[in-house]
UniProtKB/TrEMBL annotation:
Protein name (database record): Flagellar motor switch protein FliN
Domain Flagellar motor switch protein FliN-like C-terminal per the UniProt entry, residue ranges: 14-86
Any Pfam family: FliMN_C
Family designation: Belongs to the FliN/MopA/SpaO family.
PANTHER family noted in UniProt: FLAGELLAR MOTOR SWITCH PROTEIN FLIN (PTHR43484:SF1), PTHR43484
GO terms, molecular function: cytoskeletal motor activity
GO cellular component: a single term: plasma membrane
UniProt-listed InterPro entries: FliN-like_C, FliN/MopA/SpaO, FliN_T3SS_HrcQb, SpoA-like_sf
Compartments, as annotated in UniProt: Cell membrane
One GO process term, biological-process aspect: bacterial-type flagellum-dependent cell motility
Keywords: Cell membrane, Cell projection, Chemotaxis, Cilium, Flagellar rotation, Flagellum, Membrane
Length: 92
């Protein structure tokens, strides 16, 4: 039997990776405009650059944050700085 601890080491599921989807916005083009898309087309989103992004596991919203660029050896790579995290333990 596995004991429950807060460090996560006793639970074998604590080492299973999950995929988090970052939503930066949605586009709602008309079908006629969608059919015209090609390389270099611009598809406007419903959000501004400074608006928060949303983090999902499956269809469950788990957090919000701000996009930022990594520094140092990872310069140019995107990252998210969390600004709001859901209370997953209490289902809120």
């Amino acid at each position: 039997m596995v004991e429950h601890t807060d460090d996560g080491n006793a639970n074998p599921f604590s080492q299973v990776p999950i995929e988090i989807t970052i939503s930066v916005g949605k586009a709602r083009p008309l079908v006629k405009d969608l059919l015209k898309l090609q390389n270099d087309s611009i598809l406007p989103l419903d959000r501004n650059v400074e608006d928060p992004v949303e983090l999902y596991v499956g269809d469950k919203l788990i957090a919000r944050g701000e996009l930022q660029e990594m520094e140092g050896g990872q310069a140019g790579q995107l990252a998210v700085r969390l600004t709001e995290v859901a209370d997953l333990k209490n289902g809120l």
